[in-house]
Design a protein that fits this description.
This protein has about 80 residues and is mainly α.
């Protein structure tokens, strides 16, 4: 009898529960905890849903753009003024 299962095997064995919990709006972290996946590997649940073609958040046009954090704005000008 097998006592150790990989995360993907756990997900596949509990797919009906995962779909039901997703419909209820449960978080991926919560789902991972319920089926015995460590919090460190909870992102595998999200990746599994994406592989199934299920995306919970809508895709926006600027979702892949990286913006400059507000605390870094103007740092170039300050560095230039220190050099002179």
């Amino acid at each position: 009898m097998r006592t150790h299962f990989s995360s993907i095997e756990r997900i596949e064995a509990n797919r009906e529960w995962l779909f039901a919990w997703a419909d209820e709006g449960k978080s991926y972290f919560w789902m991972a905890q319920q089926i015995g996946i460590s919090g460190y590997n909870a992102a595998i649940v999200s990746k599994w849903f994406l592989a199934q073609g299920i995306r919970r958040k809508p895709v926006t046009s600027n979702s892949r753009k990286k913006e400059m954090p507000f605390w870094k704005l103007g740092t170039f000008e300050r560095k230039q003024s220190r050099a002179s």
